[in-house]
Amino acid sequence: MITQNVDGLHLQAGSSDVIELHGNIWHNLCANCGRPAAEAELDAGTPPACPHCRGLIRPGVVWFGEALPAPAWTRAAEVLETADIFFCIGTSSLVEPAASLPRYARSCGRTVIQINPEATSHDEIAQYVLRGRSGEVMPALLQAAWPAWPA
Ligand SMILES: [Zn+2]
Question: What are the Deacetylase sirtuin-type domain coordinates in residue numbering (predicted)?
């Protein structure tokens, strides 16, 4: 699972292999050295500072204009290169570079399925476009594919 969400809800819901392209708001890191910061370090001052380099502690998310974490981006590309199907679900497909992933999946010969209530630029490249909310379309798709899937 590759997500642009920073809320950590995929992990909380039990997904075990999540690539968080834009980070996780529940994680903190040093803005200077990038070292992950433990929760207890947030109480070390206002604003909290890194005990190793005195850089400021910040949320572990990607802000507009920042590069994506290289390990997450590399892993996302590797997953796409080996996936059978790429579901592009519930995204406006406007924020780059994440928005380029469906196009990359197509260039790797993957089947791309777009699920979104609104049209996006990826409707043109997806082999299948399912219009609707993910919370409605995905259960119906799973039920159709595997009738034993709980409704
Ligand atoms: Zn630091």
Answer: 1-151
User: 22 an active-site residue?
Assistant: yes
Give the domain CATH number at 75: 3.40.50.1220
From residue 47, alpha-carbon distances to 73, 106, 148 in Å are: 30, 45, 53
Same domain membership, residue 87 and residue 50: no
Summarize pLDDT for 75-133 with one digit per residue, the tens. 999 999 999 999 999 888 888 888 899 999 999 999 999 999 999 989 999 999 999 99
Q: Are residues 25 and 83 in the same domain?
A: no
Annotated binding residue 30:
yes
50 is an annotated ligand-binding site residue: yes
Domain housing 21: 3-61
